[in-house]
Amino acid sequence: MVILVAGSVLALAVANLLAGLLSKDAEPVPEDLIDRDFSAYPARSLHAGYAGRLRGPEFDVAVRVNALGLRGPEMEPKQPGRPRVLVLGDSFSFGWGVEEAQVFHAVAAASLRRDEGRDVEILNASVPGDGPLSELARLKALCQVVHPDHVLVAFYTGNDVADTMRSDPNKVGDANWRAVADRRIDTLRGEESRVDQWLSQFALYRIAKALWARACYAAGVCAYDDDPIWRAHLSLAAQALALELTTAALLQIRRVAQRCGATVSIVVLPSVAQVRHGDQPSARLDELRGISAAMREWGQRSEIPVIDLEPALVAALKAERTPMFFEYDNHLTPAGHRAAGSALAPFLRDRVSEVPRPAP
């Protein structure tokens, strides 16, 4: 009995110590920035009317949310000849850690306005934690309200495929698509659970998994919310199914956009590993770049314009010797957003070129 009690006390002490280590320097999201309603889909939305600050070890920035739940000022009446671009994405396109004018799509719009006299309106519908399926649901709710001319989908190689796998496809999409998605997602979850669920019954495995993920995260090998353990459990065939499910969601996004008169393009945002450790070969790096290549090839087949920002960020890192990603949480720094926005500007100009300019 004494040994059992002593063991329990020791286990509790170790657990508390590990919890402290794992939560050290955490970046809590302000409680009133994000609304959570798990009876709805998406379950997370920005709190309309929020105004406050987002703080972390490397930043302290202002955040405001308009009445539509979009980061930024209130939406103005639509002006003839001024293209309206609706941005969908996660924390990267939300602009985690930077001011709203520093986010890469805002930088691109400012560049077009300054250099070419082309005024482009950006509506930022990105929400931290979003993935392709929640972005699809968000577009359905917004498209007939904001009437965009173009929808720019920010695809993050680090976790968007995983986000799709973890989402519930029954809440979005037409019946035929849901049926296919259900079978794919069951396959993926089944393959994941056979190993992970069995091992997770052991406390040492759970501790090792958490420590490994934190070490990988801190070293910059894994990106924000990226789970290398989960990926190690999936076969190449299962990863291919996950990517197929992701592109099916993106096709649904195009269909919804077309119904409200908008075109669609995709901007591929690389993981920190692709930029910071791009010259150090690894299986994980091959996987990330494989996802980027698959998105480019799929976009070409599907006639959806795709731009991959990895080359621009790598070039900027070499030229400026300035970090493109924050050291701690691996989101883009202001310098990273500037490099991304500069590369995006001509791509965005071509996407909105069909919107007539206002008469002089």
Give a short overview.
The chain is of the alpha/beta class. It has one domain: Rossmann fold. It is built from 13 helices and nine strands.
Could you describe the 3D structure shown?
- It is a single chain.
- By secondary structure, the protein is α/β, with parallel strands linked by helices.
- Helix content is 51%, strand content 12%.
- The chain contains 13 helices and 9 strands.
- A 5-stranded parallel beta sheet has the order 6-5-7-8-9, with helices on both faces. A two-stranded antiparallel ribbon has the order 1-2. It has a two-stranded antiparallel sheet with strand order 3-4.
- Strand 3 and strand 4 form a beta hairpin.
- It is globular and about 60 Å long.
- The N terminus is likely disordered.
CATH class call: Alpha Beta
* Class per helix and strand makeup: alpha/beta
Distance between the termini: 88 Å
Question: Mind telling me the CATH superfamily name?
Answer: SGNH hydrolase
Q: How much beta, percentage-wise?
A: 5-15%
Features:
single chain, 360 residues, alpha/beta, Rossmann fold, five-stranded parallel β-sheet, two-stranded antiparallel sheet, 9 strands, 12% strand, disordered N terminus
Write the layout of secondary structure elements.
Elements: H1 2-23, E1 34-36, E2 44-46, E3 51-56, E4 59-64, E5 84-88, H2 91-94, H3 104-116, E6 121-124, H4 132-146, E7 150-156, H5 160-166, H6 175-199, H7 203-218, H8 228-232, H9 236-259, E8 263-269, H10 272-276, H11 283-302, E9 306-308, H12 310-320, H13 334-351
Parallel strand pairs: 5-6, 5-7, 7-8, 8-9
Antiparallel strand pairs: 1-2, 3-4
Helix pairs in contact: 3-13, 4-9, 5-9, 6-9, 12-13
